Amino acid sequence: MRVLVTGATGYVGGRLVPRLLERGHSVRVLVRDPARLEGRPWAGRVEVHRGSMEDPEALKRALEGVGTAYYLVHAMLSEKDFQKAEERQAESFARAAREAGLGHVVYLGGLLPKGARPSSHLTSRARVGEILRAHLPTTEFRAGPIVGSGSASFEMVRYLTERLPVMVAPRWVLNLVSPIAVRDVLAYLLLALEKGPLDVVEVGAEPLTFRAMMETYARLRGLRRVILPVPVLAPRLAALWVGLVTPIPNRLAVPLVEGILHPLVADTARARALFPEVNPIPYEKAVALALERLALGKVETRWSGALFGPGYLLEDREGMIREVRTLRVEAPPESVFRVLTSLGGDKGWLVWGWAWQLRGLMDRLLGGPGLRRGRRHPTELLPGEAVDFWRVEALEPARLLRLRAEMRLPGEAWLEWCLHPEDEGCRLIQTAYFAPRGLSGFLYWWLLYPFHRRIFSDLVGAVRREVLRTGSNNVPFEGSKKRVCESSS
């Protein structure tokens, strides 16, 4: 069967594609940036179509000759008003799929609370399912928290439990939820190809409380943890706390927390009848398998894998904190790279000049180089040379510039820019890395985070303005279109 997978760079889609190929299916993927597939072992075995869910022509081409399509996309992290965006995307896809005569769409949505108002995220997921079912033969799986190495739900439980010996938690951590292992989600998705349209099917393992989920993780890791439920704790405050302690950004933490304000228990009667071959594994086993994959370094996909749009990502993973900012620039990579390689020295850093000067003075007082080293040449850089309190660690013309910090720090830091050709312009990806050393490093990062966030956000925007101001956006493309870094994934 020829199958279309949307969301192939996401957490579930990235795992589904190789399993479809293993079963002999012809797989086509629709992605916004085909370069994001480079390095994946299955990339050369799929038919790649470039486009978005709101591009009718791209959808028409991608759906041609397809028997079944998987709808595995959402706009929660790429759009501020994600509900309207998800509705537009679903309607656009449904129109194109109906015109193409699509026989079956398989959609992965979320469980809804029984007898209570669902969160905005779950409401949006349900609305997408309604649109697809109204226009197309549909199988809509509704699942609770997906548990697997790299999943958002697993990472949230993992970091909260690892970092907080004592947790004061809202009383709704005592609500029952039906988690499900990612391997069982994949099993249902694969079997849906053979079953045909089934309407709504709720899936999940045996329910347990969110508190029990954390306690189970602690037991498997040999940790002693105390969780104290309290009557009052605002959901948004709890979500902000999750965003602070874990790698999950607030834009994702808020809907995750709001989603468990009420019990989320799956009615699995239809799933058992329709898919007797799937016996969902218990939560404890799912966590044990996820920990095993982490220990072996064999994490297939991660919740942040699909983040490659304009915007911001803060991530804390395996001891490395990353701040990623992406921005489209209406100029070729060569023009942008020329601006990047002229930063520092007498020209300065385009924005917040006094803050850079103050940081340099503080570094000199602590015995570091400060800004006194300047730079050798006003526009040229060579690998290994100094730029103020940075050193050029990697340089690939029109593609990559990475600076390593040599200032006094309780850890190690880097500032990196990657450039990817995109239509008539390019995508600029700026990443600040920090590997904290001990508790002092962790406190240093969070104390200065409000300042870093503003300064680095302004910096990436200033680079774009400088490119356009200097009028160098008419420089022709000369560099290869090879993708050389994965900062955004």
TrEMBL record:
The keyword Transport does not apply. The keyword NADP applies. Pfam families: DUF2867, NAD_binding_10. It comes from the Bacteria. Residues 7-134 form the NAD(P)-binding domain. Keywords: NADP. InterPro entries: DUF2867, NAD(P)-bd_dom, NAD(P)-bd_dom_sf, NmrA-like_oxidored, START-like_dom_sf. Transmembrane segments: none annotated. This is SDR family oxidoreductase. It comes from Limisphaera ngatamarikiensis.
